[in-house]
Every structure is written in structure tokens, then in C-alpha cells.
Amino acid sequence: MDSAKEKNDLCKDDLLLRVGLNDNKAGMEGLDKEKINKIILQATKGSRFYGNELRKEKQVNQRIETMMRQKAHITSQQLRNAQSQVNRVAMELEQSRDLSNTIVHVDMDAFYAAVEMRDNPELKDRPIAVGSMSMLSTSNYHARRFGVRAAMPGFIAKRLCPHLIIVPPNFDKYRAVSSEVKEILAEYDPDFMAVSLDEAYLNITKHLQERQTWPEDKRKYFLKTENFLENEKPGADVNNQEQWSALQRAVSPLLFEDSPPDWQPSGNSTQVNCEGQNNSPLLPNTVVFGTSAEEVVKEIRFRIEQKTTLTASAGIAPNTMLAKICSDKKKPNGQHQILPDRQAVMDFIKDLPIRKVSGIGKVTEKMLGALGIVTCTELYQQRALLSLLFSETSWHYFLHVSLGLGSTHLTRDGERRSMSVERTFSEINKAEEQYRLCQELCTELAEDMQKEGLKGRTVTVKLKNVNFEVKTRASTVSSVVSTAEAIFAVARELLRTEIDAAFPHPLRLRLMGVRLSGFSSEDDKKHHQRSIIGFLQAGDPNTGSVPEKTDKDRLLKPLETSQKKSFFDKKRSERKWTHEDTFKCDTSDKQSLPISHPCQVLKKRMRENSETPEDSDDRQIFTCPVCFKKQGHISLGAFNKHIDACLDGPSTSENSRMFSYSHTSCVEVGNREQRSFSLCENHNHEASRENTEINSVDCDDLVEITSHPSETGLHNLNNERNTEECSDLARKSLNTEHHHPLSACTISLGSQGVGPLSEQQPLQPHLNEITKQALVCPVCNLEQTSSDLTLFNGHVDVCLNKGFIQELRKEEVSLAKQPKDGTKRTGQD
DNA sequence: GCGGATCAC
DNA sequence: TATGGTGATCCGC
């Protein structure tokens, strides 16, 4: 499917363009924007849904008012202080900019609709949508001319486009096609990250390297024409541009009559050669792709189309955020690249509407809009203001966006954190039926949970009344549950409370849902970790967890902790890390670290422990997170000692040397920092006028930045702000101190110490491969009679809580040691 | 930990 | 007639 954002925005350029094109062409089909909005409004006005939309809108407006009031209180001094603080962060971000990865975002065009059209030629030239009268998942481009989009109810779509054909979804089929596509993607990046059935990110950096040495043969593909050309018949020879174009049209006939694919191996290209003008004359019907990123992506899209008869769009960029936006740019059936060059990135970002960025939705757009921010340039210009009006997480995120920064690595799907079932229905207001429904949902949920071998402690009931108002009620129980009965026992009481509270009125429901979270599966590890560490530290075991990543979060990582002036961070900034790194070692945050990171290594081992027997040696090559030197084949304990020593010792000059080795250009930047560092300073000397313009303010701003961290701004602020804001700010600032990256890492390291243990003695129920083995509790060392892993796991849990830790090997204990800078963690983390 | 909100697909 | 389901995160309590 195309960008979900299109769902909500009827007025996308894309649509306008299409309507325009259409009008120029024939002037008979499609609707203009005004007409579309009118019809939609008419269809929705007066409905309960609409009423709720109005209510929500009011709420957002209130939020905006509050924000504007806050803004009115900000003094210019505060703003200046904020400016220098933010600039400092921006500077660090700029230093850590990493352009060395090539990230690709692949997005199948109108996926579900395209599959349906492919499999049913009758639909080919008609406007169709996949979904139901209540809700559409996607529509083809034909239908989009009429304003028919994903997330629109079918009955409204029908009003927009009376001839619309609504096809019920066939997810099994989409899954099958999706896995065909994924097979191709995996060849370019075995660790590619699927976002959904029709969307994926690839990091093709490595592939590109290897590809440089590939002979042409390895980049050559045969055109499969028979599938597509039964009607057209251009013959076997596609050796000239004209025929190639014809072929292309034939190959991509389904979707986009009005927008020819930009993908055409052009005769001029030295990379792609379909005319046989290269040294080695090509056979007819073959095509050779070049070695550049662009060529790789053309090849990917070519192969997808050959294999599935479906087209994909793609974006190529140095990070995921940009790649995603790129893939939208030439949609459908096109691709766009942002070259790995700072100036290229900034040029791309310059006029980009913030709404295009993944993570900035309708509400954020509106709030920022109220501040006069529509484009990324404006987002950057208002960075100081934003830092005063938004949370640290948010303004950091905004800053990333406005600098064109994003994740340069792909994170594996983390462990699942919740599972839920919900259903919409026509009004149910009888308590009895509501309980029965609740029970059914619990049963379904239990089945799903058991399929994945999960158990959870928190049960959440979700209720939506006929006015579309949503309520959630949660309860956390002391021990994990997974059976229908156990879940229902909790959910029933939550529901009962709501029914009772409404009495004597009935609950008039249109939706009910049940969710289970607080898992014991992957979370088990955490739980165990925390248990162990809790004992060792006699601290709050809950502080071991680290906030999870969102889209926003993922972009934030490099700097997220940089404001926290801990010992570790000083080390860190000395080193000037240049890639996405973080000490979030949350077990569910795999791959958020460079592979050489100890946490990652250990996690990897834990994941693979049942598949790689040769890996069972406790010894491993680790890279110290402080000095960043590789520690060859040592035990975890020894490794930890090394880290301790490193943390205690003075910073070594090696740190900077390593840095300069990996990123010379950043050293330059670092030197500049000594006097003043300007973001507008171009790496190539020919600054474009636009760029100078954008950043002209900043040049001045940044001059005042010194190497001294400026919390002074914060203090000043606190003096001047009203009490509410004061305490808020103070708390934020305190929290940053508490959230000590090293402590987080230490915890996870400690927890990972369980890793090797579990190689022999599984802690995790999902390690099914070893179900048949006798289970020996790693805590009490006693063999357990039951082979049920869940029961076994429960036993381990109990054991841990009994405090049977003396059996833990020294290594694990030492790994779980407290950080040495005396940072304390609080329950507030 | 809870509940509401936001976001993505 | 009629406006989804699932999962995740953030923020303020």
C-alpha cells in the first residue's frame, strides 16, 4: 500500500496531480478536490462518527491554545538560552552524521489492489478498492482519481465513485505474494526489515561493496515476456528503446496508464544496457544492471516485477527516514535517491513538508503548523522554541528530522510487547451479551497467546461506545496469565466496574477489545535480569528497563543520551561516536547497536544458542564500549573487568585516534568546534544560496557556543518560569541525570550474563528445540520433572525470587556490577 | 502502573 | 445501514 498518510489527506499533491492530468487528458473522469471534500462532508456530517471527530478536533485545538499561551510567556532571554543548548545538541548531531550506509525503502504500489487486479483481468481498467463497505484497505490509482483512499469507508467511496468495485481482502494471497518479494529482498540484505506485507527497508551497503567485483553475468537478467505480452506481442527482440518502452508498458499495464514508469533502462546509461552497445553484446531479452545503488534498486524492482507482475517504488538514502520519504517521491513504479552527501540531504529536506516524515501525523502537523512550521527548514529555524514547548524526546526528534538524520541501521523486530483482539459490531448494550463477548475475545486472545507461547500480567479492556468514545481499563496481576479463563477472570472484573459505574444506564458499545501485555516470554529475560540485579544491587528492579523505540525513537538514538553529563558520556563525547549507537541494551532492542557491541554480541548468542553449537564457548571477541578496542577471546568476566578499568582510567589518546581513523571528516568538524562551529558551513566550499539562507541565523547563534555545556540556560529558565513549568523542567533535567546510559548497559550486560547459562539450561519457553531435554533449573540446579517449558520457566522465576543466586557464576555477578560513577537509578526511570 | 492520545500500516 | 484491527510509544498523572 502506499503511504498511510495518503489515507487521511485528500489533498495530497499526488492526487491533485493525478486529477490535473486526468482533466487534461479527457476531462471526463475523476473529481476535483473540492468536489471530493464536499461529497465526503455530506456523507459524514451529522453522524456520530463526525461528532466524535469534532470533539477530538476541539481537544487538539485546546492543546494548541495551551501551547500558545506557554509560548507567549517565553522571554527572549529564555529563547537565547534554549538556542545555545539546542545548538549544542545540533552540533553533536551534525558531528555524528553518518552517510556511509545505503538504505533502501521498498514499497509495493497499491499492493492489495494490484494483486487483485493481477489475478482478475476484469478489474484491470476499473476503479477498485480492497476492503468492505465499512472500511477500505487500499484502492487502485483509478479509484484514487475519485478520492477513494485507504481507510475510507466503502459506502463513502461508493458515493465518490459509484462504479467502484469493492473486493474483499484475501490476506493469504497477499502474504504469499509478499513472501515472493521478500525472497528477492533477502538476496540484497539478509537482514532486511519488513514493515508490513508491502513495505520493507534494506541496508544494501554490504551488497554494494561485494557487487563492485561482480562480473556482468551476475548482474544479468532475462526478460520474461510471455507472462505479460500475450496481447501485445512485441516479439522476442527488445533491443531498442522503443520496444523496451513498449515492453515496459506491457509489463506494468495494470496500474498506471497515466503515469508511465520512470524506470526504463535508458540507452544512455552505461550501467543498464539493453541495447548491447557494451563490450559484450547482449542477447535479446536480457538486461544487465550496473553496480551503483540506483542500479541495484532498479534490479530489485525489475525482479519483483518479473516475479510477481507487480510494481514497486523505492527510495535510496543514507538513512531510513529519508529512504522512506524518497520512496514516496516517484510513486508509483519509480525510485528516487538522495546521494550520501550532506548538501544533497539538506537540499532534499529544505522544502519538505514535515507531514511527509514518518512519525509526524495529523495532530503534530497541526500543532507545529500553529507555530508557523510547515517545512523542515522552518522546523529547524524554530528549534529553540520547540525545545521549550515540547518534551525532550520530541524536540530531539524534531531536530533530527530537520537535519535530515535518521536510523542508519535496521533494527530487527523486537520482541512482541503486547497482543490484543478487538472487534467492532453494531450496538450491544445488554450486560449479559457484553460479558459473553468479552469471554469470546478472551478465548481468542488466549489461543493467540498460546500459539506464541506467551503469558502476560497486564490485562487491558478497551471499550468504544456508540459515540466513538474510547476507554481503556487495565489491571496488572501478580502472576502471568495466558488461559482464556484466567484472562477473562481479570477482564470480566474490569468490564463489571464499567458497567456498574454507568448504572442505571447501559454501556452502549460498538467495540470491545482485550489486550495482554507485561509478557513473560522475552520479558522473562528482563524479569530474570531484574530479579538478579535487584538482588545484587538491592535496588529497584524495575529500573533496568529502557524505553523502547518508536519511529521517533529510532531516529533519536545517537543523541538521546548525549545531554546527560555522566562520566560515561564524557568518555563518549571524547570518542565522538560517529554511528548510531546507544546504550539501550534492552533485550527487545536488538540491532540497535553496532554488531560489535557486547550487548549485541551476547544477545545474538542468546538468540542463536540452540542453533550454533560451536558458539557455545564462553569466550568471545568483544568490543569495549568505552575505549572501543576489541577484546579478543576473553570471558565475560574478564571483559567486564576491562570495562571497569577503562571507566576508571583516564581517557586514552587512542580514543580519538580510533575516531579519526573511522571518520576523518568528523575530526575536522571537531576541531572547528573549538572556535565556533556552524551548521551552515558547507563541506564543499560552494555553499548553495538556499542553504546559506536557511542557516543564516544559525551561524550567529552558534558562535556563542563554547565547549562548556550550558545548563545555565536551564537554570535561568527555572527562575523565570511559572512554577508549573519550573517543576516540569526541573524534573526533566533530573530525569536525564537519572537515566544513566551506563547503568542501563550494565544491567543488560548483567542480564546477558544469563545468556551462556541458558545455552545449556534453557530459560525461555520459546526455545522449543530443546523441549525434549531434561530441564535443569539454572538457579537451584535441580532437574525438573515436567518438560513443560512454561512450567519450568515459572519454576525458575520462583527460584529467582527465593534468592537462590549463589549458584550464579562469578562472571554473571561481576557483569551485573553497578556503574562506578555513583549514579543512582530511581523508580522514576 | 494507568489512561488517553498519537502514529503507522 | 455503514467509519477497522494490531501494535507501539509518549505523556501526565
UniProtKB/TrEMBL annotation:
InterPro entries: DNA/RNA_pol_sf (IPR043502), DNA_pol_Y-fam_lit_finger_sf (IPR036775), DNA_pol_Y-fam_little_finger (IPR017961), DNA_polymerase-Y (IPR050116), DNApol_IV (IPR022880), PolY_HhH_motif (IPR024728), Rad18_UBZ4 (IPR006642), Rev_trsase/Diguanyl_cyclase (IPR043128). Residues 103-361 form the UmuC domain. The keyword DNA damage applies. It comes from the Eukaryota. PROSITE patterns: UMUC, ZF_UBZ4. HAMAP family: DNApol_IV. PANTHER family: DNA POLYMERASE KAPPA, DNA REPAIR POLYMERASE UMUC / TRANSFERASE FAMILY MEMBER. Belongs to the DNA polymerase type-Y family. This is DNA polymerase kappa. It comes from Erinaceus europaeus (Western European hedgehog).
